[in-house]
Amino acid sequence: MRQEIPVQPPEQVINDDELMSFSVRELNRRLRGLPKDQVVQLKQRRRTLKNRGYAANCREKRVTQKESLEVEQDRLKMEVEKLAVENARQREALDDLHRKYKSLLHVTAKSGPEKIKVLSGPLTIADLNKDNTIPGPSHRQQDGPVAGVMVKQEIVDQRLGD
């Protein structure tokens, strides 16, 4: 007569933690001798548990990535706002320079070209003559590459009210 091995429910043979932690080789070694249908059930249970773990990890990773992207989005929004404020400030400065340029054109049209000197760089106090006029290009120090038009200081003060 053939001896029957008592069939135990799969949960009693190996618990879920052991089922997931064993390597495939170790699991097969432990399942040796059990009925085929019980082995299939245990292996299916192992696959189900592993898939649950993978899904949980994926959800956690997705939530973490979403939070990270939200933080980055907030940082970028703040940077855009900061750049918009800086852009507005630069536009105001440009508009102010444009107004001053137009005033200088208006002043120079009335005072004549003999009062105008074209400079190859910024004007310093050392560049002025004793009567607050600007010497010719050969007499001035080279302070930088900026070019501009300067008018006798007292005329600019009168017209612009600075």
From TrEMBL:
This protein's record includes keyword Flavoprotein = no
* Localisation per UniProt entry: Nucleus
The protein's predominant localisation is nucleus
Any GO MF annotation of the entry: DNA binding
Which residue ranges does the record annotate as region Disordered? 129-149
The record's Gene Ontology cellular component field reads:
nucleus
The UniProt entry's coiled-coil ranges are: 66-100
KW tRNA-binding (keyword) present: no
What keywords are annotated for this sequence in UniProt?
Coiled coil, DNA-binding, Nucleus, Repressor, Transcription, Transcription regulation
Pfam families according to UniProt: bZIP_Maf (PF03131)
InterPro entries per UniProt: bZIP (IPR004827), bZIP_Maf (IPR004826), bZIP_sf (IPR046347), TF_DNA-bd_sf (IPR008917), Transcription_factor_Maf_fam (IPR024874)
Quote the protein name from its UniProt record: BZIP domain-containing protein
Origin species? Strongylocentrotus purpuratus (Purple sea urchin)
